[in-house]
Amino acid sequence: MKKPKDFIRSEVEKTPPSGIRKYFDMLHGMDDVISLGVGEPDFTTPWQIRESAIHALEKGRTHYTSNNGILQLREALSLMLHQKYNLNYDPKDQIIITVGASEAIDIAIRSIAGCGDEVIIPQPCFVAYKGCVNFTGAKAVPLQLSEDNCFKLTVDQLEKCITDKTKAIILAYPNNPTGAVMTKEELAPIADYLSKKDIMVISDEIYAELTYGMKHTSFAEFENMHDKVIYVNGFSKAYSMTGWRLGYVCAHRDIISQMIKIHQYAIMCAPSFVQYAAIDALKQCDGDVINMRNEYDARRRYIYNGLKNIGIDCFEPKGAFYVFPNIRKTGLTSEQFCDRLLMEHKVLVVPGTAFSDAGEGFFRATYASSLENIKEALKRIERFMKTLK
Ligand SMILES: Cc1ncc(COP(=O)(O)O)c(C=O)c1O
Fold first, then answer.
1. Average pLDDT of span 39-59
2. Probe target for ligand 1 pocket from 103, 125, 176, 246, with the most ligand atoms within 8 Å of CB
3. What pLDDT does residue 202 have?
4. Mean pLDDT value of segment 20-37
5. φ, ψ for residue 232, nearest 5 deg
6. Which of 42, 99, 102, 249 to mutate to test the pocket of ligand 1 (most atoms within 8 A of CB)?
7. Same domain, yes or no, for 184 and 119?
8. How far apart are the CA of 247 and the centre of ligand 1, in A?
9. Is a pLDDT exceeding 80 seen at residue 71?
10. Which of 19, 69, 232, 369 would bridge with 373, disulfide CB 3.0–4.6 Å?
11. CA-to-CA distance for 136 and 130, rounded, in angstroms?
């Protein structure tokens, strides 16, 4: 007779769990640890949004919504996307409200990729992409980004990875874990090149609101690519709403009309009262987003300069809320560095290898943590670095 594990599909079994999990398990039973590990805002969701959810609950808005999400929210998103990023998505049939950007990424990949297809994933990258591609039976093709080029993607790199099986590429700027951004001028040649290929782009722009000193350019803005981009975003990062689980995906109506079936059968709809609160987030919370962004920016500069003063090489991040320092000089692997920093000096950061093999020699620290925590973490990191000399 078969054992329960014999029923598991090999694509699922072969996919390892997220490399970040081990570090949270190690935290158990440890006191006085400073965590720069979790990739989520440390701010509580702005009060207006919480109040709006409470009102929605009081009014009994506790039922299923339309599968695509409530029209009022889709209309507010369509307007915001047009005003901020010059994107044009029809609220009626080009937007699906999802359970976080995570679901949006999953249904985007599932709707276009399957056995025999290849999906290019520039790395280091967010932990979920490879797993989501593996689960469909498609092949995840790694594209190694280089620190020397500030972790930006080039046409040359892309050209080397494309085969006649390439179905899609996942683009993610501003980037987790590197904090890299790409400007309009830098993205334009990629758009030009891809516009002549039969390849879809899944553009994960969850950190669009968190750029420092420059305006975000959406990959969907390029006229020649608009119909070939599946645009992913969500409320987790900009509005500090990670636990609310709300995201959205926008695309050509021929894609959305198919993608909605996966969402319909797997999820039904995103939570109703959360969707109502999100309307107020979009309409009333621009000021909160700006305040949080300014605070991240101050912390970003502090941690970046602090690491450099300690003698750690660090590429200057211009987006999201992560630094991705290079620790090759220490002679330790990413994992050895992070294990020892946690066990000997009680600072939690994540090894670059959690974000693919391309992350070896780096660690990721988030500055979505108080300045006080960051200051103390830097002191401890300095002490640790002295023991390595
Ligand atoms: C690049 C990137 N995309 C998507 C997500 C998932 O976001 P959500 O909370 O909306 O599912 C994250 C979360 O860390 C992320 O870093």
1. 97
2. 176
3. 98
4. 86
5. -115, 135
6. 102
7. yes
8. 9
9. yes
10. 369
11. 10
